């Protein structure tokens, strides 16, 4: 059974914000159910992740200040959201959703979090609407529990996974791969194990060729036993912030390439949704729903 983390707290009051359309977290499950892609019993509700789990990946002082709502104003501005208890709780639900989805992926091959992909949060900072890094915390949890020994994080959001790179800098058991817009946010990049900066205006064929080449390269130098996939859909040509020119079919083929690679190598994979800022919400939701459909096809659900 395909397992999908979802919590009502994902739908935060800030959902109407121009740059962060949280309404998609409500519409993705609705669309999946409407199209009959999944049934209601595929969804599970995460809990608030505990503090010791968070600090496996994040600085204890930063986490304490976040939980106490005592972050300096400068850090709150860097995050981009007004800090509130509900916002912090939302992030903790997202973290637990990704951890639990990782455990389901070990059982079923692939599992999802409707939210997540909060890859701009580093070890001791939040940034770009990300307070805590869900896939980084889940990766450290799997390592800590000895449920995985070598983890690959595939980040194909249009923005570099700078926070993920920051957390795992010099970590021999985690390989971070980010393929992102060169001239896009964040403007000061961190160093992933493999960074592929992309020029503005890149189309389907050029993007997919480069992705295939670099996935092959990674799997020749690193032999993971678990993968995380940040499947942002802000690579679409309709995206207001992305600056790339991929079609919806190109985005679907991207997912197919990544997931086929994982399936063919027997690699369990957890998928978080990441970014998407197209003018029309249907373009965002349909692209995300295609990721679910592709995973179900590849993994035989």
CATH classification, class level: Alpha Beta
Strand order of the largest sheet: 2-1-3-8-7-4-5-6
Percent helix range: 40-55%
Strand count, sense and closure of the main sheet? Answer: 8 strands, parallel
CATH H level, superfamily name: Histone deacetylase domain
Total beta strand runs: 8
Polypeptide structure, described:
The structure is a single chain. The protein is α/β, with parallel strands linked by helices and about 300 residues long. The protein has one domain: Arginase, Chain A (3-Layer(aba) Sandwich). The protein is about 40% helix and about 10% strand. It is built from ten helices and eight strands. It has helices at about 25-35, 50-55, 60-65, 75-80, 85-110, 135-145, 160-165, 205-220, 250-265, 280-300; strands spanning about 5, 45, 110-115, 150-155, 175-180, 195-200, 225-230, 270. The protein has an eight-stranded parallel β-sheet, with helices on both faces. Strand 1 (about 5), helix 1 (about 25-35) and strand 2 form a beta-alpha-beta unit. Helix 1 packs across helix 10 and helix 9 (about 250-265) packs parallel to helix 10. The radius of gyration is 17 Å and the shape is globular. Residues about 15-20 have low confidence and may be disordered. This is Histone deacetylase. Pfam families: Hist_deacetyl. Belongs to the histone deacetylase family. Keywords: Hydrolase. It comes from Sphingobacterium chuzhouense.
């Amino acid at each position: 059974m395909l397992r999908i983390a979802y919590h009502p707290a994902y739908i935060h009051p800030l959902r109407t914000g121009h740059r962060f359309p949280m309404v998609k977290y409500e519409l993705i499950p609705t669309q999946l159910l409407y199209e009959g892609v999944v049934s209601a019993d595929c969804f599970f509700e995460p809990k608030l992740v505990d503090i010791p789990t968070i600090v496996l990946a994040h600085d204890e002082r930063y986490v304490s200040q976040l939980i106490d709502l005592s972050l300096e104003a400068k850090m709150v501005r860097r995050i981009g959201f007004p800090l509130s208890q509900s916002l912090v709780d939302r992030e903790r639900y997202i973290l637990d959703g990704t951890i639990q989805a990782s455990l389901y992926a070990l059982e079923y091959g692939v599992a999802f979090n409707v939210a997540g992909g909060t890859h701009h949060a580093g070890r001791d900072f939040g940034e770009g609407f990300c307070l805590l890094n869900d896939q980084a915390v889940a990766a450290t949890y799997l390592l800590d529990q000895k449920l995985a020994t070598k983890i690959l994080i595939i980040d194909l959001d249009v923005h570099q996974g700078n926070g993920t790179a920051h957390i795992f800098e010099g970590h021999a058991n985690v390989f971070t791969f980010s393929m992102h817009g060169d001239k896009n946010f964040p403007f000061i990049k961190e160093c992933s194990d493999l960074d592929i900066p992309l020029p503005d205006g890149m189309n389907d064929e050029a993007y997919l060729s480069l992705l295939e080449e670099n996935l092959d390269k990674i799997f020749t130098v690193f032999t993971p036993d678990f993968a995380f996939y940040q499947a942002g859909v802000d690579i679409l040509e309709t995206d207001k912030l992305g600056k790339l020119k991929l079609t919806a079919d190109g985005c679907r083929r991207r997912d197919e390439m990544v997931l086929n690679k994982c399936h063919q190598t027997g690699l369990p994979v957890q998928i978080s949704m990441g970014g998407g800022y197209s003018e029309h919400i249907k373009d965002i939701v349909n692209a995300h729903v295609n990721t679910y459909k592709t995973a179900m096809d590849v993994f035989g659900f």
